[in-house]
Amino acid sequence: PVYVLNRFPDSKIVNENEDGSVRIEMQVNDGYGMKMWLSSQSHMVKIISPKHMRDYIIQDMKDTLKLYDIDVE
User: Fold this and answer.
1) Strand extents, DSSP E, the chain
2) Strand, coil or helix: what is 56?
3) At what angle do helices 51-67 and 32-40 cross, to 10 degrees?
4) Mind listing the pLDDT tens digit for each residue in 2-58?
């Protein structure tokens, strides 16, 4: 979480879970750069909202799996 808090100074931790995971709230734009950053972190990050950003990342992961002939539907 330190990296996220440093990269996004207006972000804040809203919950720390017993398993060591944290919920961080961030105010960001939904531009291409943000989508690319989230995609690069997708193995460590679960997007809760907004729905359109969550849907974008899910579709991006499905498209990536298709490159390896893996169908996830």
Assistant:
1) 12-16, 22-25
2) helix
3) 60
4) 999 999 999 999 999 999 999 999 998 889 999 999 999 999 999 999 999 999 999
As a whole number of angstroms, the longest Cα–Cα distance in the chain is: 40
Ramachandran category for residue 25: left, alpha or beta (phi over 0 → left; psi -120 to 50 → alpha): beta
Question: Which residue type, as a one-letter code, is found at position 42?
Answer: S
For the chain, the 3-state helix, strand and coil shares in percent, each to the nearest 5, are: 45, 10, 45
The dihedral of CA 31, 36, 38, 42: what is its sign?
A: positive
Residue carrying structure tokens 């989508």? 35
Burial of residue 54 (number of CB atoms within 10 Å: 0-12, 13-18, 19+): middle
For residues 64 and 54, the answer to whether their CB atoms sit within 8 Å is no
